[in-house]
Amino acid sequence: MTRLERNERLIKIALLVIACSAVSILAVITIFIFSEGTPIMFKYGFKSFLLGLDWYPSEQSFGLLPMIIGSVMVTLGSLIVGVPFGLACAIFLTEFSSRRLRHILKPIIELLAGIPSVVYGFIGVVILVPFIRENFGGPGLSVLAASIILGIMILPTIISISIDSLQAVPRSYREGSIALGATKWQTTKMVTLKAARSGIIASIILGMGRAIGETMAVIMIAGNAINIPHSVLDPVRTLTSNIALEMGYASGEHREALFATGVILFVIIMVLNTLANLTSAKRKA
Amino acid sequence: MHINPRLEEAVVKVLLWLFTLITVFVLFFIIFYILKHGLPVVNYQFLTTDPMDMGKSGGIYTTIIGTIALTLVAILIATPLGIGTAIYLTEYTRENKITKIIRFGSECLAGIPSIIFGLFGFILFVTKLKMGWSILSGSLTLAFMILPTIIRTSEEAIKSVPYNFREVSYSLGSTQWQTVIKVVLPSALPGILTGVILSVGRSIGETAAVIFTAGSALRLPTSLFSSSRTMAVHFYIMAREGISMPNAYGTAAVLIITILIINIVAYRLMHKFIKKYS
To answer: What CATH number is given for B44-277 in this structure?
Structure first.
């Protein structure tokens, strides 16, 4: 083997090692979060974590149910806000707008994704929260405020992935439908949207993942009170906020319980990612 | 019930227009609102003086330096890993089990929320490896977070380099690595840069992963092991604790302008790149 050949082989091996970095990082993160978070769950029982109502870390009571419900509520709320607007934008830009308008608007909407989450949270605090307090009552810091801000935050995800999957539908599908006398909207409704369905579902699932994982914006506007909300005007604490609010000073079992919160969040995100992956894999098949 | 299709079409069109208009309006509103309240505060002095009284007065100089240091180190760590992974996936192997696992890992990593990265960085770098709240801890955490973006964009960029570029290089007797270094990477550079620039934007705006790993010290960092506060963290702390609203708006304005410029540059670069090869 010449020196050149040996070098080539060494380079190939080095590249393989580098290529494994992402997987290894994922593995290390998973191991660390689980090894820090699961012992305490075993000690007090999964049930007390998942279904417990009281979170008093100093008295060894680590019930996460209010936070789980909080996360679910703001995430569903964000979908109610974000999905109609996101889909409408995607449909408008691919099916109904002129090329020129699409080339102007699409990048502008994608810029939404670049605005840091703290800025969204801040806008929520200075505009939305006072507005809700004055017009609907309650403290303003609420499920409603968090849902609206998160709904705006997931728009770019939903819009750009939906646009991609709508554009991937072959032109001939639309032409066939138009040739049969269908209007543009009938074509969109009955042909294009059906063909792009799995990509659109994937975009919604990914948006959901983003909403459930969002932290800083939610801390600023959701109120963070540990209780099961009775209306959308009540304050609420999510799993992510629970970690971020108490991480700074927690120690011992309290800290382990925060890692347990991380474990639950991690599992939810992984399930969502796998679902999104499966739906888009189905599209390719 | 029968609805006239033409009427339905007209109504839907108006609705879609309206929804899109609202979405675009919200974006502009957020940006203009922050700039309107923030820009009057921003001047040369605001950018070049240290924060005083926890940020109540003075400027944001140390947080700008902190942001630059943290982002730079994160990019330096993540870029070689990301490009190396992309080269391996596109040039050195066929689609098989290993590439599937690598892609899956990278996709999962991309979906992990930043607070989990923060939690992980805190336990591994800050406490277990005893690096404390430091630029290094923060940068490593950020590097892990932006790695998937760099992998994905680099892979796409390398894939879009026409295959005959490589054939010409091989026919001249180059080895595979020479071809990658001298032909493929230079042609893919603008596309790769787009990913790197987008990652810079993401690092600058990140809060949850940074606040628990780099800490929030307001002093000027002196080494990789100093704790440092980024602009985003500074903004968060000032807004949340109500330290100074004008300065919070000012910081937000600087943050938004920086990120917008970065994203616009990335977008234009990508556009040029796509045009070149299609």
So the answer is: 1.10.3720.10
